[in-house]
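Quick one, probably user error.
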């Protein structure tokens, strides 16, 4: 019995240390005089997750130089170099060409992008945020690194098939205002649906790669890294039992309501949401809790034998 009590005490001590460390780390980062206020472009880039997707962190790649692997049911994508290198990056692009890529999913030479690049969400970004992002990217160091071609399954390797896909699933432009919603709701929607493009990962896709709008944010087993959870406020299969404080703690520190910490693909996302201003954090949480709940139970796929 003494051994059991000692183990229980050790577990409580370990958990307490984890919480204390996370809280001190958060407070230090939030109040440290060494952390300067980010520019608008830096803030937009952080929330949009540009560095996460365009940096091959696993292989110690240079920031924004591309090469990160994204495995999907349609094949494997490799993110491109978006540094200002003129021969291998986007250094010879104009601002209008950058805006066309973000708003219309087309490269400088007119090539259509696959929706692994979340332009269906980025098209909803405001012109001011896109301009600020472009200016911030221009300030980053150029890196000479050739892009790696995607390795896609048949028939998705035929890029001309993107034309009918776009006709079916892609609509350009900012989101229309909803008359009976306040500014905080619209800001939360903008952060979740446009900037952070949460639906691109947390919504199931059909056989053609289109998002299933009836299952918006209800999770999927075919997302980046495999299972991506249901984040609708459904109490049994989603996050409906999470309080506003739980969500704010999660987005700020990555800590779940049970005291554990999120890992995997979500860890990088939480590093970005940790930069949210208090006003934006509150708007995101409020919007998320106001979404319609969708019941969708998920279980991890068995690995291929």
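Nope, works fine. Designed sequence:
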């Amino acid at each position: 019995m003494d051994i059991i009590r000692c183990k229980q005490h050790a577990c409580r001590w370990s958990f307490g240390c984890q919480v204390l460390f996370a809280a001190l780390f958060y407070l230090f980062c939030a109040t440290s005089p060494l952390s300067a206020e980010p520019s608008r472009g830096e803030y937009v880039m952080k929330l949009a997750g540009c560095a996460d997707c365009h940096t091959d962190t696993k292989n110690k790649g240079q920031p924004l130089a591309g090469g990160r692997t994204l495995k999907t049911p349609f094949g494997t994508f490799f993110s491109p170099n978006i540094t200002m290198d003129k021969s291998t990056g986007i250094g010879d692009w104009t601002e209008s060409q950058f805006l066309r890529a973000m708003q219309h999913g087309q490269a400088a030479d007119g090539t259509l992008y696959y929706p692994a690049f979340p332009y269906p969400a980025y098209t909803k970004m405001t012109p001011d945020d896109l301009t600020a992002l472009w200016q911030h990217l221009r300030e980053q160091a150029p890196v000479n690194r050739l892009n790696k071609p995607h390795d896609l399954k048949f028939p998705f390797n035929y890029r001309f098939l993107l034309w009918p896909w776009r006709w079916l699933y892609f609509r350009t432009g900012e989101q229309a205002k909803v008359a009976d919603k306040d500014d905080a709701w619209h800001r939360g929607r903008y952060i979740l649906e446009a900037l952070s493009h949460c639906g691109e990962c947390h919504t199931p896709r059909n056989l053609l790669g289109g998002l299933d709008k009836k299952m918006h944010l209800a999770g999927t087993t075919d997302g980046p890294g495999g299972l991506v959870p249901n984040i609708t406020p459904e109490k049994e299969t989603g996050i409906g039992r999470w309080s506003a404080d739980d969500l704010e703690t999660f987005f700020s520190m990555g800590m779940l309501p049970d005291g554990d910490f999120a890992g995997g693909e979500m860890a990088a996302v939480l590093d970005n949401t940790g930069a949210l201003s208090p006003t934006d954090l509150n708007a995101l949480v409020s919007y998320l809790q106001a979404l319609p709940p969708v019941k969708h139970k998920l279980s991890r796929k068995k690995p291929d034998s």
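The CA atoms of residues 221 and 227 lie 4 Å apart.
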